[in-house]
Amino acid sequence: MNCxxxxxxRLTLPLVAAxxxxxxxxxxxAAACRNGVIGSFPTHNAGDVRxxxxxxxxxxxELADGPAAPVAPNLVVHRTNARLQDDVACxxxxxxxxxxxxxxxxxxxxxxxxxxxxxxxxxxxxxAQARKSADAGVDGLVLLAAGAGGQTGAANPFAYVRAVxxxxxxxxxxxxxVSDGASLLAARVLxxxxxxxxTSFIATEESLASPGYKQALIDATMDDVRLxxxxxxLPASLLAQxxxxxxxxxVASGDFQQDRLVGNQIMWSAGHGVTAVDxxxxxxxxxxxxxxxxxxxxxxxGSLAVG
Length: 307
Ligand SMILES: Cc1cc2nc3c(=O)[nH]c(=O)nc-3n(C[C@H](O)[C@H](O)[C@H](O)COP(=O)(O)O)c2cc1C
Fold this sequence. Notes:
Layout: H1 4-7, E1 15-17, H2 26-34, E2 38-42, H3 49-62, E3 71-76, H4 84-93, E4 98-102, H5 107-115, E5 119-124, H6 127-135, E6 140-144, E7 150-151, H7 157-165, E8 171-175, H8 181-190, E9 194-197, H9 199-202, H10 211-219, E10 225-228, E11 236-239, H11 240-245, H12 258-263, H13 283-301
Parallel strand pairs: 1-2, 1-9, 2-3, 3-4, 4-5, 5-6, 6-8, 8-9
Antiparallel strand pairs: 7-11, 10-11
């Protein structure tokens, strides 16, 4: 059963403003949701559960008086996340409709969140992880494909979406390199219900990223993106400029630790879609631009010269 049919009337695009450590805060999320785009943020961007409570209260108020896409907190479900249970309780108290899990098995949170009427999407970096999370009863899978910003997998997005669609009839969110309306439409054509857009939202006025980081994105192309496990211990797409300037020893692959991730909030990460970032926009402007491109791409489909 795919929950997208329920969500679709509140969306103006099949899009999620992806959760990003040190980037996604209440202003970005509120602006995304007001524009009909699911707004996600990692709960650890709020310093503690009291701040998380304050952020969710603020978002409730901000979004109360008009149509809005759902707010989707992102929970790192790795065993080293000491505040996981407190964050789940806070999310349940706020009647949140959708949660996205990352870095680990969603099993510990599926039951309590489902009992509270909350949908659960889990991000997955391999086919094996996708099957395990599907078996755990999640409502959606976020496919972390090659070239996505942040921690990601190595699978080609074309092959990945098609492979998961063959056994999973829940919601599929494609993540990786979606930076404009044409790539968003391509994700839909592949069989994804939604796509993540992360990198493009870093260079928005509402993001928590520093001016230097936003400028670095404008200056960079996909050739400046390196896959490295130096932050958090899992492969992540990082800007070469930041990586080269950083004086840090390598971290053993697979040695993820939640506090190391949170302690590195200033990491300059970007996906291959960084080539499309050419200026700092407001979230309103970015969504308007993507919507126009999406409509144009749909219109162009009928006039393709071949096929
Ligand atoms: C700076 C940065 C921080 C990120 N932090 C998180 C995070 O805390 N939790 C998470 O689930 N994904 C995180 N991601 C991954 C994004 O949610 C998403 O998968 C990715 O940005 C999508 O690819 P794109 O950047 O090509 O659009 C991060 C990505 C970036 C660029």
